[in-house]
Specification:
The structure is a single chain. This protein is an alpha+beta fold. Helices cover 43% and strands 19% of the residues. Helix 2 packs across helix 4 (133-147), helix 3 (116-130) runs antiparallel to helix 4 and helix 3 (116-130) packs across helix 5 (155-175). The longest helix is centred in the last third of the chain and has 21 residues, at 155-175.
Length: 198
């Protein structure tokens, strides 16, 4: 079941009600850090609801600054629990917004501590389907370059996790009844992710 959202356009507030206390705690773990790229919390209404500032903008696109987006991922991943990092985990492009010159991450109900390579590969798999091969080459180069300004990527973990994450990605598409035909262009882009010299 999806979370419920109420949009108050007069006051530019979004009220979100999640389904479980676990989801609520995951959201608060991120929002409580007050990252510059995350909407500000305005009020915690009860155990399952909270209100936050409304980001008035549009979803990111192929023309977005993936260098900056990569930097934001490295900031999120700087929150550690042992060897794991705080990860978004729901890296659908709809959860990344551009507004007034800034990029924002939204929807953290699935966030958790995981290997940062999980987030990065999963994020790139969406763009492997969206972008043509030449455009994707620019996307992945800028994204990884931005991430590595402050973040570190383990090549061995990247190689180990890649097939698992692809399988999870494809299984999830089937679950939500999305077309699961892997085009030649997507295959080329996926191979670029797999072989990328991180």
């Amino acid at each position: 079941m999806k979370s419920e959202l109420y949009f108050d356009y007069e006051n530019l507030i979004v009220v979100k009600t999640v389904n479980t206390k676990e989801e609520y705690n995951k959201e608060m773990l991120v929002y409580g850090r007050h990252f510059s790229f995350v909407p500000e919390i305005i009020n915690r209404d009860d155990e399952l609801s909270f209100s936050m500032e409304m980001i008035q903008g549009h979803n990111i696109s192929e023309g977005s600054d993936f260098h900056v987006i990569g930097e934001h991922f490295s900031q999120l991943h700087s929150v550690k629990s042992g060897d794991l990092s705080l990860c978004h985990q729901d890296t659908n492009p709809k959860n990344y917004m551009y507004s007034l010159g800034e990029y924002y991450f939204i929807d953290f109900a699935e966030s958790d501590f995981n290997y940062p390579e999980y987030d990065l590969i999963h994020f790139l798999l969406f763009w492997a389907e969206i972008a043509e091969a030449e455009a994707f080459k620019t996307i992945i180069n800028n994204f990884i370059k931005g991430y590595k300004r402050k973040g570190k990527i383990c090549k061995n973990k990247w190689t180990e996790l890649f097939p698992q994450i692809v399988q999870m990605f494809d299984d999830r598409r089937l679950k939500y009844e999305k077309p699961n035909i892997i085009s030649e262009n997507t295959q080329i882009n996926r191979k670029r992710i797999e072989m990328y010299k991180v």
